[in-house]
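Quick one before lunch.
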Amino acid sequence: MVKNNPYLRLVNRNNPVSEGEQIELIRVSAERYMEREAGRAMKKMIQAALNKGVRLNVVSAYRSHKYQAELIEKSIAERMESGMDAISARKETYRSLAEPGTSEHNAGLAADIMCENDTDGDERFENTREFAWLRDNAHRFGFILRYPRGKEEITGFIYEPWHFRYVGVRAAKKIKKQDVCLEEFLRQEN
Ligand SMILES: [Zn+2]
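Model of the zinc ion complex:
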């Protein structure tokens, strides 16, 4: 099953997206784009949430390599401005921003979803009704909470309640039911 599903691809430091990879993108909201199938699922999910009075705000989706690099530079600069030394600023930045090509955003398969008027990734997002809706429904549209709490050592990422990754409906349902992260899921399926 894993081999037949390109949406289960692992994207991380060891499995980067090459800069020349052609990704067919579609628009999911205002200025946000995702890979075609993931984007279609995202649009359906946004509409389904809206039907329940929940407004999902996609603050970041597909990112080009260049844009990812800009985000990293900006984050490092901001941390240094607030008094951090260069090495710590870099280290802290890479805990939540992957190097260009090593982010799921570079594959167009992930989206950061927050509340209306919110653009900062913050753990407190988990206390919102937007998050509660996503937690209960995202798998029905093929999305998983990609960097859960308690799995930081395995994923290499801090807990990110706002980052949702498309894997397809069947896999998303299984992953949710088994309460595993993508790495664990792929390990047992292979
Ligand atoms: Zn993200």
